[in-house]
Specification:
Length: 306
């Protein structure tokens, strides 16, 4: 499937645009599942100012989606109409040391890179980020967490750009964090975060990160084409236990499978479509409702048209 090419009109109305703007860019290579159709328009801004300019000039009737490292995402097979924005390059990938064991981090920096840099500097309290797939922008959006820590524990402030092109800064309280959720405006595009660490010992922090890596390797199918944890844990329950009790471990739809190692992970065995993966997830939800009465909520974001 391909969409109508609207990039010539966009470029004509944005003479000062500096970033890369392309039509019908395939999105599968940008997701961990390696599935999905194209973006009608794909934009990679040069820096914050370029992003702000683009958004301020973009027609309001065009929907906008931001894609990071694609670790928590299913792009449907029909692709994504409107505009898909992906942050990258030095402007969104810097890690700058600030006073008081703080780091100012670009939204495109992988979480594990932040943990590694903090360890090298002897900054503790951020090692948990090494166990979270994805980048800082996504971690802000969903209050990502693992191994006893989450973003709400370490965020001082987040900076971003609104749909109007205006810059905005939110403090921790303003982010409205809850379990795997932020109440920040859905159309805000995060560009950087200021994170608070504590004084720590480099070798002790690296050892903690090694333990996190070993635990992930032993318990999660991290070498497969997967999107991370599929469903949120219901209050007082573990999603994987509900899925296992419903007899879904190893369940297959098309070429998508519930992981045998950790059944809150779905896997593309090689030739799965986005529909295979989403249909498998819905079948898991159906069986869990039938056996336990629990209604599992998707943690993985699903976007685009079928």
């Amino acid at each position: 499937m391909t969409f109508a090419d609207i990039t010539p009109d966009l470029r004509a109305n944005m003479p000062d645009l500096r970033g890369r703007l392309t039509a019908n860019e395939q999105l599968a290579p940008f997701t961990w599942f390696r599935v999905g159709g194209p973006a009608q328009t794909f934009f990679q801004p040069t820096d914050e100012d370029d992003l702000s300019y683009f958004l301020s000039m973009l027609p309001l009737d065009l929907p906008v989606l931001v894609v990071g490292l694609g670790s928590n995402l299913i792009v449907r097979d029909g692709g994504v109409p409107g505009v898909v924005i992906r942050l990258g390059g030095k402007a969104f990938s810097d890690i700058v040391v600030a006073e008081g064991h703080r780091l100012r981090v670009g939204a495109a920096v992988p979480d594990r890179f932040v943990a590694r840099r903090a360890a090298e500097l002897g900054i503790g309290g951020l090692a948990f980020l090494s166990g979270i797939p994805g980048a800082i922008g996504g971690a802000l959006r969903m209050n990502a967490g693992a191994h006893g820590g989450e973003m709400k524990d370490v965020l001082i402030e987040a900076r971003g750009v609104e749909r109007s092109g205006e810059f905005i800064v939110l403090n921790n309280e303003g982010m409205g964090f809850s379990y795997r959720h932020s109440s920040a405006a859905k159309d805000m595009i995060f560009t950087q975060a200021l994170l608070q660490g504590v004084a720590g010992d480099k070798q002790a922090i690296l050892s903690e990160m090694d333990q996190i890596a070993a635990a992930r390797e032993a318990a999660q199918p991290i070498r497969e084409k997967t999107g991370g944890s599929t469903f949120k844990n219901p209050a007082g329950q573990k999603a994987w236990k509900l899925i296992d009790s419903a007899g879904c471990r190893g369940l297959v739809v098309g070429d998508a499978q519930v992981s045998e190692m950790h059944c809150n992970f779905l896997i593309n065995r090689g030739k799965a479509t986005a529909a295979d993966i989403e249909n498998l997830g819905e079948e898991v939800r159906r069986r869990v409702r039938e056996t336990s009465g629990e209604d599992l909520e998707w943690e993985i974001k699903r976007v685009g048209v079928a």
